[in-house]
Amino acid sequence: MQFLAAVGRIFIAFLSHAGRLAVFTAIAVSHCFRPPFYPRLILRQMIDIGYYSLPVVGLTAIFTGMVLVLQSHSGFARFSAEGAVAFVVVLSITRELAPVLAGLMVAGRIGAAMAAEIGTMRVTEQIDALVTLSTNPYKYLIAPRLIAGLLMLPCLVLVGDIIGVFGGYVVATFKLGFNPAGYLRSTWQALEVMDVVSGLVKAGVFGFIISLMGCYNGYHSRGGAQGVGAATTAAVVSSSILILVFNYVITELFFAQ
């Protein structure tokens, strides 16, 4: 009976957290479409999420493209199929690697920052002060971050697609001896609009997840500095897990036969 009671407590706690997250999501999304809006706050969050994340996303994308070319070439060389390297690289980057890796990098950088900032405001009672001043914390703190995350991560992934393919091109032509024009032609022939669109859709969903989990865990943090640290960790872990889960779901929707 003790084992069943423990399982029941875990299951009830899971349902409680899921319900609280669903209610939080519904309220936050509703405030994204209702005035008043704060364009200056939205622009600030777009700069924080988009512009300041460009270096880490760019470095991740270019080295991923380089490594992918080396690994693909060493594998296809066993079957004398080196010509398929460009095909594999561009599809892998646009469909999977750029959105997933960019999402994980941004989750570690932005999700943690959101949770720490809002969590600090919660434990120092700054959110209560906003309510006292007749300012809705969902509209002032949560909605701008959700909008910015939804808009900026596809932009980051699009830049990551370009940089990743360029990194593969550099290694393929200067190290492996591929013909530059032939490699570009193979890349262009292999690329389809749906490959890029699926990656951008994933990026939009991932951006929303990162912002939502960062805001949710920060907003419900308790217990001073220790609670803020726990909320930051929970934001990064939950964002990373949900990114991988929804990556499969979206891939199934786009490419399942």
Please provide a written account of the structure.
It is a single chain. It is built from 9 helices and no strands. The chain is mainly alpha-helical and 257 residues long. The chain has one domain (38-255). α3 (54-76) packs antiparallel against α4 (85-123) and α4 (85-123) runs parallel beside α8. The radius of gyration is 21 Å and the shape is elongated. The relative contact order is 0.16.
Gyration radius, rounded:
21 Å
Multimeric organization: single chain
- Give the end-to-end Cα distance, rounded to a whole number of Å: 46 Å
Number of distinct beta strands:
0
| Structural class designation | mainly alpha
Domain module count? 1
Tell me the fraction of residues in β-strands, as a range. Answer: under 5%
Nearest-integer average pLDDT: 89
Number of helices: 9
Helix content: over 70%
Low-confidence stretches: none
Order of helices and strands: HHHHHHHHH
3D shape: elongated
Sheet with the most strands? none
Record keyword descriptors for this entry.
257 residues, mainly alpha, single chain
What would a concise description of this structure say?
The chain has 257 residues and is mainly alpha-helical. 85% of the residues lie in helices and 0% in strands. The radius of gyration is 21 Å and the shape is elongated.
Question: What is the topology?
Answer:
Blueprint: H1 2-31, H2 39-49, H3 54-76, H4 85-123, H5 126-132, H6 137-174, H7 180-190, H8 193-219, H9 224-255
